[in-house]
Backbone:
């Protein structure tokens, strides 16, 4: 198994991309996921086993969908920390949380998935949506998640994948080329969304992600393929003390 380690310049490019696409991010996610990403996010929160009163972390929180779902799950006795390296995405996340009918227990923080600004063993559950595919160092990102989780806690990581089935893979590429990228082009974001295909090609398969999570120290690691393998959720548990 080979895990590509892009350059630091690549990481800066991705950060700049997510700042630029922030206003259209959710609209394009609807197109990328055929409108199903909200269902998958509910599944991700469920698999994280966040509970009322839990202290939770949402890494690469983007516009805050998973953070808000976590906040509604943990309730007023719990708390959620939404972390992202894109200040533009965080601004949108904060605006949307502020518009909620009920106050949500969320703290938004600018931060690096490879160097999380938290002490060891702080969180009862964690999520990560569409972030692992874009980090500079996947093993380091998994190691950081392991570090900040309490013993026995789980992380659920949602992301797009290259499907193993050649026909489904062909459909995915056709969909990206003929629908998603032209839509991004109409929004002035063609270059920003052209990176998706190469990022999918670099991204470890579900089985490889399981191996990487175990190498980071996680136990009871499962990868759930969704949408014929075009999407997946990695669920990993930190061993109990």
Residues:
């Amino acid at each position: 198994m080979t895990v590509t380690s892009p350059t630091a310049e690549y990481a800066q490019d991705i950060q700049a991309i997510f700042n630029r696409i922030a206003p259209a991010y959710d609209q394009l996610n609807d197109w990328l996921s055929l409108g199903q990403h909200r269902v998958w996010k509910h599944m991700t929160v469920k698999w994280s086993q966040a509970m009322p009163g839990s202290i939770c972390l949402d890494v690469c929180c983007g516009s805050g969908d998973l953070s808000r779902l976590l906040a509604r799950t943990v309730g007023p006795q719990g708390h959620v920390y939404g972390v992202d390296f894109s200040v533009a995405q965080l601004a949108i996340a904060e605006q949307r949380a502020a518009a909620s009918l009920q106050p949500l227990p969320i703290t938004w923080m600018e931060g690096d998935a490879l160097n999380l600004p938290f002490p060891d063993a702080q969180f009862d559950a964690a999520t990560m949506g569409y972030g692992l595919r874009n980090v500079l160092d996947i093993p380091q990102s998994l190691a950081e998640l392991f570090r900040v989780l309490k013993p026995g806690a789980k992380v659920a990581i949602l992301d797009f994948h290259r499907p193993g089935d050649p026909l489904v893979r062909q459909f995915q590429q056709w969909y990206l080329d003929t629908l998603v990228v032209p839509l991004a082009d109409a929004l002035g974001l063609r270059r920003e969304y052209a990176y998706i295909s190469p990022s999918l090609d670099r991204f470890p398969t579900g089985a490889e992600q399981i191996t990487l999570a175990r190498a980071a120290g996680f136990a009871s690691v499962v990868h759930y393929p969704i949408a014929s393998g075009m999407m997946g959720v990695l669920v990993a548990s930190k061993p109990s003390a």
